[in-house]
Amino acid sequence: MKAAFCSKFSLIVIVAAAAGLLGGCATSGNPKDPIEGFNRAMFGFNEGLDKVIIKPVATGYETVLPQPIQTGIANFFSNIADLMIGVNNLLQGKPAQAASDAGRVLVNTTVGFLGLIDVASSMGMEKHVEDVGQTFGRWGMTDGAYVVLPFFGPRTARDTIGLAFDVYTDPVGHVDHIPTRNVLLVTRVISDRAELLKADKIIEEAALDKYSYVRDAYLQRRRSLIHDGNPPREQDGSAELENDNTKVAEAGEPAQPSPAQTAMRQ
Hints:
- The structure is a single chain.
- By secondary structure, this protein is mostly helical.
- The protein has one domain.
- Helix content is 67%, strand content 3%.
- It has ten helices and two strands; from the N terminus they run ααααααββαααα.
- It has helices at residues 2-25, 36-64, 67-91, 95-110, 119-122, 132-138, 157-169, 178-206, 210-226, 239-251, and strands at 146-149, 153-156.
- It has a two-stranded antiparallel ribbon.
- α6 crosses α7 and α9 packs across α10 (239-251).
- The radius of gyration is 18 Å and the shape is globular.
């Protein structure tokens, strides 16, 4: 199992490094997206895979399972994610938030029946969204080139390196019983994709060029997350785009709903 994780880790790091190198030599109309040709091809691949396999399964999942069961499954994986969210908050110098995350795990794992019920939120313990890419950003690492990964979807070079650490430290991925681990991984992908179904219509209605919309929405949201919702204003920012992205963020992740886009979400 360790060998498999090392292989995945190395592959993601190599992709990030390649994105950074290509970013220095490729040309594009958008300086944040210097490998746009490659990214559009990967975007199309992910869209096709999602349309043929992932989205239909997620739609069926949403149709068949009662909402309380869907919520319980989402809460279960959210509780697992809180473990590394707390670690990242600590690494970012936010001990109060890290303590809150630890409290969420303790309360939801015990009183909430292994996280199936989000008791912590009802007790006022805020749910945070943190990952290694955000931690690197808080430490001052620049975004690097925007890159669309096969299967994992939109990232930056920095976030791709962060993703490698997220994959390696993912508690679900370290379950020793392989059939159980595979069921958990697949269920998490389907659950996360089902939550994104609400965002599909917003994206389709808002975007003349879906690729560009998803790219800009992803970059703006990541910037907002790194600065805890209060990013410094960009001179070339578009108020209209920010408003559209806010609507998408309220419905789900403002990024391409690729098969594993949120599979490693922390």
